[in-house]
Amino acid sequence: MITKKALITGIDGFVGPYLKAELANNGYDVFGLSLAQADASNQIFKCDISDRAAVAEIIKAHKFDYIFHLAGFSSPQEAERHPELVFEVNVNGTINLLDALVEFSPTTKILIVSSSYAYGHPKYLPINEQHPLAGTGAYAASRIAQEKAALTYTDRLALIITRSFNHTGPGQMATVIIPKIIQSVVAIKQGKQKSLLMGNSHIRRDITDVRDVVRAYRLLMEQRQRGLVCNVCRGESISLQEVIDYIKIKSRISFPVEIAPELLRKNEPLNIYGDTSLLKSLIVWNNLISYPAMLDDIYDYYLQFNNTFL
User: Fold this and answer.
1) Who contacts 305 (Cβ-Cβ below 8 Å, separation ≥6)?
2) Other C-beta atoms within 10 Å of 284: how many?
3) Is 244 a domain residue?
4) Please, are residues 192 and 310 in contact by the beta-carbon 8 Å criterion?
5) Which structural domain range is residue 143 located in?
6) What does R_g of the chain's alpha carbons equal in angstroms?
7) What is the structure's pLDDT at 265?
8) Continuous H helices in 136-233
9) Cα separation of 229 and 126, whole Å?
10) What is the Cα–Cα distance from 30 to 66, expressed in whole angstroms?
């Protein structure tokens, strides 16, 4: 059996370790790019994706069969604070990687992770891949520019772009809304917090478990079609109020929910969910982890490790 050699950029982010496990469990030899540090295995390389020469050196030396490009700014809020840096990383970093592949490893297949933020406010639901790219702000603009740049390489490289909707799971930072709600409830249960602070709890979002997302990434890479953009999403939405209600039952405690004006966002869409038609035409895939199972796992994670994160 021939071992498939895969590189994950941004391997030490939230999604990276889940993707590494998914690939390793399916026969891949997994390597990674980390902004932080290399490791003793010689399979994690310290590399800033915006360092063109460093990226080229790694691609030239190793000739990967597959690259999963996760590295980049993933926080819209942080992107607004560092707009020039987000373009340097998300756009120029992607170009650096693609240019290195063209020069040194043109047969490598690459999956580039973009974001549903590129769509902006939905003009219709569910959002399919033909929806206008009307996202605003530095983060959405960087993803739109990243996609446009990447698609100019389709005559030279085998690439696929995913527009990934919200995803979460155990271990995600509590700056993201679902872990933030659940960590707060655990803190209330442990007597470290008195109430849950929220913005608009009635908004609905399409949220997939990260373990289902990385399985979709692997299957998309293994199928033959290239040069396309594909949603990765659950295909249905859940309200934040439903999350709160479920976790209230799970935790077996009652607590007040307070509206924090600073958490309210102007003109926020009430409902967003994606169309999975293209995704399911390309691969045999369904969500294996339900909303309740996903919330249970995040709750149990924070219940066990909450003292570390507070």
Assistant:
1) none
2) 7
3) no
4) yes
5) 4-168+210-232
6) 20
7) 86
8) 137-151, 177-189, 210-222
9) 16
10) 10
CB 68 within 8 A of CB 60: no
* Predicted local confidence at residue 1, as pLDDT: 62
**Residue 267 corresponds to which amino acid?**
N
Residues in CB range of 103: below 8 A, 6 or more apart: 56, 60
Q: In the chain, which residues have pLDDT < 50? A: 308-310
Q: Answer yes or no: pTM beyond 0.85.
A: yes
Asked if residue 95 is part of any domain, the answer here is: yes
Residue 91 lies inside a defined structural domain of this protein:
yes
The number of helices, as runs of H, and strands, as runs of E, in the chain is 11, 14
- Token pair belonging to 269: 């869409």
Contact 154, 255 (CB under 8 A): no
Identify the CATH number of the domain in which residue 135 sits: 3.40.50.720
pLDDT score at 306: 58
Q: Measured at the alpha carbon of residue 13, what is the angle toward residues 93 and 33, in degrees to the nearest 5?
A: 50
Length of the chain counted residue by residue: 310
Query: How many distinct structural domains can be found in the chain?
Result: 1
Q: What is d(CA 146, CA 81) in angstroms, rounded to the nearest whole number?
A: 19
Q: How far apart are CA 214 and CA 153, in angstroms?
A: 24
Concatenate the DSSP letters of all residues of 60-113 into one string.
HHH--SEEEE--S---HHHHHH-HHHHHIIIIIHHHHHHHHHHHH-TT-EEEEE
Token pair for residue 282?
Answer: 């390309």
Q: How far apart are CA 247 and CA 272, in angstroms?
A: 22
What distance in Å separates the CA atoms of residue 256 and residue 236, rounded to the nearest whole number?
28
Planar angle of CA 289, 20, 52, nearest 5 degrees: 130
Plot region of 167 (φ>0 → left; ψ -120 to 50 → alpha; else → beta):
beta
**Sign of the alpha-carbon dihedral angle for 239, 240, 242, 247:** positive
Domain membership of residue 189 (yes or no) is no
Q: Cβ distance 96 to 56 under 8 Å?
A: yes
